[in-house]
């Protein structure tokens, strides 16, 4: 099960990977707004649904609706692939430990929705991609995998984000295959995918 909000290029890499002997399939794609990710799902023949915050009375009602919509597909794993909303307490209570997020920075540096411009503004020479389990904090959950990406002198947000996303697309596919095959052991702080 994949959650997305944006252009859906990470989703597309998962769609392309999840064939033949890849150990997972995408049962559905959930979005919180009209976006290209939903169009990619439809083009691939994958069920999609939208649960928009503004169509609910408050965050708790949205959290409940999203939880029910996802649960209807009985996913083993939930992948937040560019889903730009913080998941709520009901969702975490139902699916905690089975939600994987990808973040375009080397956590714990530059958490939040502005990781790429924040890294550029700070002037770091190396940033990267982090794939991690989702907990109740913002990009604070146990790290599953990280890979560094150089920041070039003439980078702008678009060029740096695209270099990071090229890594994210591959790393996410690799990590999900490992998790789907071997599971995750986590004490809530550290996470290990058994060999
Ligand atoms: C990725 O960089 C992801 O880490 C971030 O949003 C981006 C999603 O890209 N949270 P796309 O919509 O899949 O192209």
UniProtKB/TrEMBL annotation:
Pfam name, any one: Formyl_trans_N
Reactions this protein catalyses: N(1)-(5-phospho-beta-D-ribosyl)glycinamide + (6R)-10-formyltetrahydrofolate = N(2)-formyl-N(1)-(5-phospho-beta-D-ribosyl)glycinamide + (6S)-5,6,7,8-tetrahydrofolate + H(+)
Sorted UniProt keywords: Purine biosynthesis, Transferase
Pathway the protein acts in: Purine metabolism; IMP biosynthesis via de novo pathway; N(2)-formyl-N(1)-(5-phospho-D-ribosyl)glycinamide from N(1)-(5-phospho-D-ribosyl)glycinamide (10-formyl THF route): step 1/1
Limits of the Formyl transferase N-terminal domain: 2-176
Swiss-Prot/TrEMBL site (Raises pKa of active site His) positions: 139
PANTHER family reported for this sequence: PHOSPHORIBOSYLGLYCINAMIDE FORMYLTRANSFERASE (PTHR43369:SF2)
HAMAP family: PurN
Identification of the protein by name: Phosphoribosylglycinamide formyltransferase
Source species of the chain: Rhodococcus tukisamuensis
Gene from which the chain derives: purN
